[in-house]
Write a structure and sequence with these properties.
globular, about 325 residues, disordered N terminus, 11 helices, mainly alpha
């Protein structure tokens, strides 16, 4: 029987990182640092604002606070290590660190996916079945949906990780990426990866494709309901309640499809890395701006919070 060390055949991996010229690394590291801090502070701002304003203690914003938390966590899985490697000119990551990074990347990515689906269902019930909204989207249902999101994402990531640690890496330890991406690790392995690829297909279909189809069906019903509304005011109100969410969904799935569902050859590593930057760095940063700038409730909550602060002084 092979030992664990022989199975992994490496104690560390080399992350080639982003396709950036050496003379431009300082500029890009500063840019990514600003984007990461914006992601953390922006999402923390959303969480704090939702907790402080009673008007935002609704199912939609309950889900949004969890989306903001997973946005911070998801970005923190990859960006700090990427910045450290750029600033220290070190491209290594330990085997255990690489496996852990792959696991948490998959888990928080999955939670993002399910929370977005839960928010879509909330909008579907609010617009298509408004009279039954309080009965269908109760507090217990919201908590159950969040727990289910964490459990399914945890389980899916755990399955991938267990299969990943069984692989051998005798071909080398150089990853053409800035983090330990599952697909990049599988390509690097010298073992038979047919089971891993089959599980990716099955789990990906269940945890990504099915929620995406549910979102599309829900928005189809929402669109049909909006078109039946005779009042322009009613149409505007319906669109304003789901416009921000639809923008985030479009941005999220556009990058997911481009990164994982559109086939790419082995010589398109730079393209995959560039799309991954959009998915892991840009999207979590834009979420707070989309929900803050396009959402009247968030603007109103901010004004109320600032007014209370001014009056209390």
């Amino acid at each position: 029987m092979k030992s664990t060390k022989n199975q992994s055949s490496t104690s560390q991996f080399i992350l080639l990182g982003l396709p950036i010229q050496p003379e431009n690394q300082g500029i890009y590291s500063a840019l990514f640092l600003v984007m990461y801090l914006t992601t953390v502070l922006g999402n923390l701002f959303i969480i704090l604002l939702i907790r402080l304003d009673p008007h935002l203690h609704t199912p939609m914003y309950f889900f949004l606070s969890h989306l903001a938390f997973t946005g911070i966590s998801f970005s923190s899985v990859t960006v700090p290590k990427m910045l450290t490697n750029i600033l220290t000119h070190s491209q290594s990551i330990s085997y255990a660190g690489c496996i852990s990074q792959a696991y948490f990347f998959l888990m928080f990515g999955g939670i993002d996916n399910f929370i977005l689906t839960s928010m879509t269902y909330d909008r579907y019930v609010a617009i298509c079945h408004p009279l039954h909204y309080n009965r269908i989207i109760s507090q217990s249902v919201c908590i159950l949906m969040v727990i289910a999101s964490w459990f399914l994402s945890f389980s899916g990531a755990l399955i991938h990780t267990i299969l990943l640690v069984r692989l051998s890496f005798f071909r080398g330890n150089i990853l053409h990426h800035f983090f330990c991406d599952l697909s990049a690790l599988i390509k690097l392995s010298s073992s038979d990866t047919s089971i891993n690829e089959l599980v990716i297909l099955i789990v990906g279909s269940l945890l990504i494709t099915v929620p995406f189809i549910c979102i599309m069906i829900s928005y189809g019903h929402i669109g049909a309901t909006i078109l039946k509304t005779p009042s322009l005011k009613g149409i505007y109100k319906a669109l304003s309640t789901c416009g921000s969410h639809l923008s985030v969904v479009s941005l999220y799935y556009r990058t997911i499809i481009g990164l994982y569902l559109v086939p790419s050859s082995n010589n398109t590593n730079n393209k995959d890395v560039s799309v991954a930057v959009m998915y892991t760095v840009v999207t979590p940063m834009l979420n707070p701006f989309i929900y803050s700038l396009r959402n009247q409730d968030m603007k109103g909550a901010l004004r109320n919070t600032l007014s209370r602060r001014v009056c209390s002084q």
